[in-house]
Automatic annotation (TrEMBL):
Catalytic activity: D-glucose + ATP = D-glucose 6-phosphate + ADP + H(+)
EC number: 2.7.1.2
GO cellular component entries: cytosol
Superkingdom, natural source: Bacteria
Gene: glk
Main EC class the enzyme belongs to: transferase
Protein family per UniProt: Belongs to the bacterial glucokinase family.
Keywords, in A-Z order: ATP-binding, Cytoplasm, Glycolysis, Kinase, Nucleotide-binding, Transferase
Protein name listed in UniProt: Glucokinase
C-alpha cells in the first residue's frame, strides 16, 4: 500500500462517501455512475472508537453492500497517514481503513471542499434565492457556512473543469461599519488582538456577539449557547433580536467580500448548522443589503445571486458527484489518496 500522487481516473463501485464532523458522521453509498447515492444511518462520533467501527455499524444497520472505495470529508487538515479530527476524538487512518474494510483506495478531502463540489449540481428545492441576481452558467461560485466554526470554499470554473478551492476564509478580519457596529465592537472580545469572522459568525461566536450587544445596550443577559439566543429572539427579546440582526449583516458583508474576491457570478451559497435557525434574519433584507454595499461595485453585487442551501447534506452530494464523474473536477489527491496496490483504481 502506498500514497498516490495523481488525480484519480475513477473509483471502484460501490463508493462509500462520508461527511465526518465533530458530533456526527454521515455516510452514503454510490452504487454506480448513474444512480442517486444510497443514504446510510448517521452515527454519533462519541459512540464509536474510530471511523472504521462507525462505518461497519452504519453498513450493517442498513444491510448495505460492502464498499470498494471511500471518499471522506473531514474537518481538519490532511497532513499524513494519521488525521486527527478538529472537534472529535477520532484519528482517521486511511491505511487501517483499507485493511479493515477491504477497500481498494481511500481519499480524504476537506469538509468545505466537499461543500464546494456540490455547488454545480444544486438546483430547484435544494436552494432558496435571497435577493436579486442571476447565476451565470460556468461562472465561479462560493460557499460559506456558519456552524461550529465558519467554513469557506470557492468553486472555480476553468477549461471546462470545476476546481474546488478550500481555505481558511472564516479567519478573515471582521470590523465595524454601521453606527450600531461602532457601539458594539469595543465590547467584542479579541483573540490574538483581532476580531476574526469566525469569532462572531459561528455557533460558538453567537454568545460572544450577544455579550457585546448586551454590554453596548447596558442590558443584563447571560446567553451561553446559540440555541438560547435564537429561542430568546423568537420570544422577542431585544438583545437576542439585535444579535441576530448584526449576525446577518456581518455574514452578508463577509459573503460580499468573498464574492468580489473570486468574482463569484455563479452565486454565493450559505450553508452550515446555524443557517436554518436564523433563516428569517437572512431573508429580512439586512443580509442582502450588506452583501450589496460594496461601493464602487454595488451594481455588480446586485447582479450576483445569494442562496440558502436547503439540501439536507450537500457535502455528501458533492462527494457523490465526484465519485461518479471525477474527470469533471480538478481535485488534487497528492498526499490525500491511499491505495491498496499503489496504483490508481479504474471504474468497472
Amino acid at each position: 500500500m502506498s500514497l498516490s500522487s495523481s488525480r484519480p481516473r475513477g473509483f471502484r463501485f460501490p463508493v462509500l462517501v462520508g461527511d465526518v464532523g465533530g458530533t456526527n458522521a454521515r455516510f452514503a453509498l454510490v452504487m454506480d455512475a448513474t444512480q442517486p447515492a444510497l443514504p446510510l444511518p448517521a452515527v454519533a462520533t462519541a459512540d464509536y472508537p474510530d471511523i472504521t467501527a462507525a462505518i461497519q455499524a452504519s453498513i450493517a444497520e442498513a444491510r448495505a453492500p460492502q464498499p470498494r472505495s471511500a471518499i471522506i470529508a473531514v474537518a481538519g487538515p490532511v497532513t499524513g497517514d494519521r488525521i486527527p479530527l478538529t472537534n472529535a476524538h477520532w484519528v482517521v487512518e486511511p491505511l487501517q481503513m483499507i485493511d479493515s474494510l477491504m477497500l481498494e483506495d481511500v481519499v480524504i478531502l476537506n469538509d468545505f471542499e466537499a461543500q464546494a463540489l456540490a455547488l454545480p449540481g444544486l438546483a430547484g428545492a435544494d436552494i432558496e434565492q435571497i435577493g436579486s441576481g442571476t447565476a451565470l452558467a460556468g461562472a465561479s461560485k462560493f460557499v460559506l457556512g456558519p456552524g461550529t466554526g465558519l467554513g469557506a470554499a470557492a468553486m472555480i470554473h476553468a477549461a471546462d473543469t470545476w476546481i474546488p478551492v478550500p481555505g481558511e476564509g472564516g479567519h478573515v478580519e471582521l470590523g465595524p461599519v454601521t453606527d450600531d457596529d461602532f457601539l458594539i465592537w469595543p465590547h467584542v472580545e479579541r483573540a490574538g488582538g483581532r476580531v476574526g469572522a469566525e469569532q462572531l459568525l459561528s455557533g460558538t461566536g453567537l454568545p460572544m456577539l450577544a455579550r457585546a450587544v448586551a454590554t453596548a445596550r447596558k442590558a443584563d443577559r447571560d446567553f451561553r449557547k446559540g440555541a438560547e439566543i435564537t429561542r430568546a429572539a423568537s420570544d422577542g427579546d431585544p438583545v437576542a433580536v439585535e444579535t441576530l440582526q448584526v449576525f446577518a449583516r456581518c455574514l452578508g458583508r463577509v459573503a460580499g467580500d468573498f464574492a468580489l474576491t473570486v468574482l463569484a457570478r455563479g452565486g454565493v451559497y450559505i450553508t452550515g448548522g446555524v443557517t436554518s435557525y436564523i433563516a428569517d434574519y437572512l431573508r429580512d433584507g439586512g443580509f442582502r443589503a450588506a452583501f450589496e454595499a460594496k461601493a464602487p461595485h454595488a451594481g455588480l453585487m446586485a447582479s450576483i445571486p445569494t442562496f440558502l442551501i436547503r439540501h439536507p447534506n450537500p457535502a455528501l452530494e458533492g462527494l457523490a458527484a465526484f465519485a461518479r464523474t471525477p474527470a469533471l473536477f480538478a481535485v488534487g489527491t497528492a498526499g490525500r489518496q491511499w491505495t491498496r496496490a499503489g496504483a490508481l483504481t479504474v471504474p468497472h
